[in-house]
Write a structure and sequence with these properties.
With 96 residues, the protein is of the alpha+beta class. It has one domain: Alpha-Beta Plaits, CATH 3.30.70.100. The chain is 35% helix and 34% strand. A 4-stranded antiparallel sheet has the order 2-3-1-4. Helix 1 packs antiparallel against helix 3. 11% of the residues are buried.
């Protein structure tokens, strides 16, 4: 299992439009093979800063979604609402 952390900054005044587009992106990912779950968070006191945390079965499942036509389509709607490129980090459980 891996977790994908996506940080986004939204243009001021476009938060509502972003929420609609982000909900659609999450709906699309629900059907992706290997998608386990996810949540969307807003930073306290900074309505322009969002954090997406998604769980995937493995790296292959994430890469399949990341390069999919479905994600590309929803990102076409999301990207114009951002002030900078989204930042993506990939985490895996530590091994002891």
């Amino acid at each position: 299992m891996i977790k994908i952390i996506i940080e986004r900054r939204i243009m001021p005044g476009l938060e509502e439009e972003y929420e609609e587009a982000a909900r659609e992106a999450m709906r699309q990912s629900l059907g992706a093979r290997g998608f386990v779950g996810g949540e969307s968070l807003v930073e306290l006191g900074h309505s322009d800063r969002r954090l997406m945390i998604t769980k995937w079965r493995d790296m292959r499942a994430w890469k399949e979604w990341y390069t999919s036509e479905e994600r590309s389509r929803v990102m076409q709607r999301l990207l114009p609402l951002l002030t900078e490129e989204e930042r993506i980090r990939i985490y895996e459980p530590t091994t002891h």
